[in-house]
Amino acid sequence: MFDAAFALKVFAALFAIMNPIANIPVFLSLTEGSSDSAKRRTAAVALFGVSIGCVIALVAGAAILRMFGITINDFRLAGGLLVLLIALDMLHGSTSAQHHPGQTELADPDPAADVAVYPLTIPLLVGPGTIATLIVFGQTAAAQGRIPSLVVGVAGFLVLLGSSLFAAPAIGHHLSAKVTAITKRLMGMVLAAIAMEMMLASLQVFLKGVLH
Fold this sequence. Notes:
single chain
């Protein structure tokens, strides 16, 4: 069964948490001094890495939770709290510690190192918040028969992400700091609402079990 609203919710959640617009300046700073062909290679590797990360979280996420004896409702509550913390950072215009490497991790970087995997793919794009969101949506889609909607939402976002990464050099010339800041705060609001929905869904199941 295809549910357009669910597909849009998945797309919006991934857009909010990975925020391609806000990450364009990051991509350009990480690839500064590289040739156009090298930037395209970095974009391709990053897109491939994000795609693989999404597939692993969606397919193997539930099995990993079961291995540690964690129920999806426990994870939904913890994941919702993590996503809410990231959203609050975005609303305040600051970078999230969960999705950005610390200064010590980036100290004395090797200029020859490939930044596509680290820190661009992990943890900037596929961080704990992204993984938690994908696992929750994956389990919700499986339980409600909305797998096609989930696939459309994730695929649609990956197409947009890839387009923004490949077009980053051209977009960067027209992307002001004000636009980036406004986008970050708007996406923070969307992400906060999704986080609250995740936590409330988990609490409803918990309270229902207590009352019965």
